[in-house]
Amino acid sequence: xxxxxxxxxxxxxxxxxxxxLIALVGLSLQKKGPSxxxxxxxxxxxxxxxxxxxxxxxxxxxxxxxxxxxDVFHVQGVVPNNEAIVGPVLLExxxxxxxxxxxxxxxxxxxxxxxxxxxxxxxxxxxxxxxxMIAVILMVAGMSxxxxxxxxxxxxxxxxxxxxxxxxxxxxxxTGNDDVALGHTGGFGIALSGWVARAxxxxxxxxxxxxxxxxxxxxxxxxxIVVMLSMGLIFLVVALIAGPTYVTxxxxxxxxxxxxxxxxxxxxxxxVFIILAGVRVILAEIVPAFKGISERLVPNAKPALDVPITFxxxxxxxxxxxxxxxxxxxxxxAIMGVARTTIIIPGIVAHFMTGGASGVIGNAQGxxxxxxxxxxxxxxxxxxxxxxxxxxxxxxxxxxxxFGDSDYGVIGLYLGYxxxxxGKWLIAAGIAVATVALFVISILMDRRSATSxxxxxxxxxxxxxxx
Length: 467
Fold this sequence. Notes:
The chain is mainly α. Helix content is 77%, strand content 4%. It has helices at 2-12, 15-29, 34-73, 82-114, 124-140, 145-175, 187-199, 223-242, 244-251, 257-297, 308-311, 315-339, 348-389, 406-466, and strands spanning 77-80, 119-121, 181-182, 302-305, 343-344, 401-402. The strands form two sheets. It has a three-stranded parallel beta sheet with strand order 5-1-6. Strands 2-4-3 form a three-stranded parallel beta sheet. Helix 2 (15-29) runs antiparallel to helix 3, helix 5 (124-140) runs antiparallel to helix 6 and helix 6 (145-175) packs parallel to helix 7. The radius of gyration is 23 Å and the shape is globular. The N and C termini lie far apart (82 Å). 51% of the residues are buried.
């Protein structure tokens, strides 16, 4: 019996197997045929292994860069890259992360069924990364594995339910309807862009889409090229400052410093490419399986999808938002250098994805001015948040990469500071209070909507009687 239990434990310690089982359960409940079930389960399993391999490639490219950055500038340079940090996290907290992810997705459907917030979070890859960060914080606070899974799943469900709800008023402005929501870990930063754009009093009629973008800049739309060029420039600049001799003797194992910078940047971009390929395979199988379940359980549910869902509504705003957010990241990095804190190197992927979406949201609220200022606010937000997060991630926070989107900061800092002030029980109390608050707010909003409808009906009846 002990040998059998040992095998079960070994199986469930593998997150790739757990995620594949989620797909298998979803397909079984939809009564798919044996062929579809076999295809979906195996492709999900292999996709997760591809994702893990890509994370290792990215991590390997960042490790020598972090060493060089620290030696040259006498500061710690950290890259906010979700794919890079999730690799070492999954190696240490893989099973806990996978179970938080699974039960968090289930509870997200339950919350959507019981409250007015009908958002089914379908961006599984970022939800998994978020689960990994929550697992780290709860385990560092002293929770056992099963305590971390229980409270972590609740926390994961809360953030995946609230984040799309915060962005939805701005998404309606972008899409012109209420049929689709935004589900991404940059949700709060993108919503901040909307609030800033609204406060800027820009004119939505002065849209970014009235600007003609030169075809020579069309390559910016390809994230792989942007990552390669941007990281190549960063690697090369730091290598030049460090000096060819330093790089050859301490970093590149005798390789020319320019070639080393080029290869390292290429390795980073290749790692991100591999990760995204793995994510696409996973999502192509697990999202339809989970979506089918949710459609049966939650009437009027809205799918909360990844940030590219916004890109087609304002392509020029995507480029403007990316550049504005990146400039904000560079400004923040300069300020951190002057202040001699840990330096957060602008995460290119995070600035492209959330900055682009922030540009679209800001443009819908305040035109070109809204797109620029809104995305700039998002860029500052996702530069400050990773710096604050380092203090609550334990040993993971000493790595050369960290989580880079705004929602990681919202839920991570909430849980992390609760843990620092009161330990694991204060974290549990904080999650319980937030869960109760979600239901109370939902009830109050339902009553307000019902009152508004009654007043409108009375006014309509009065107008009809008068006529």
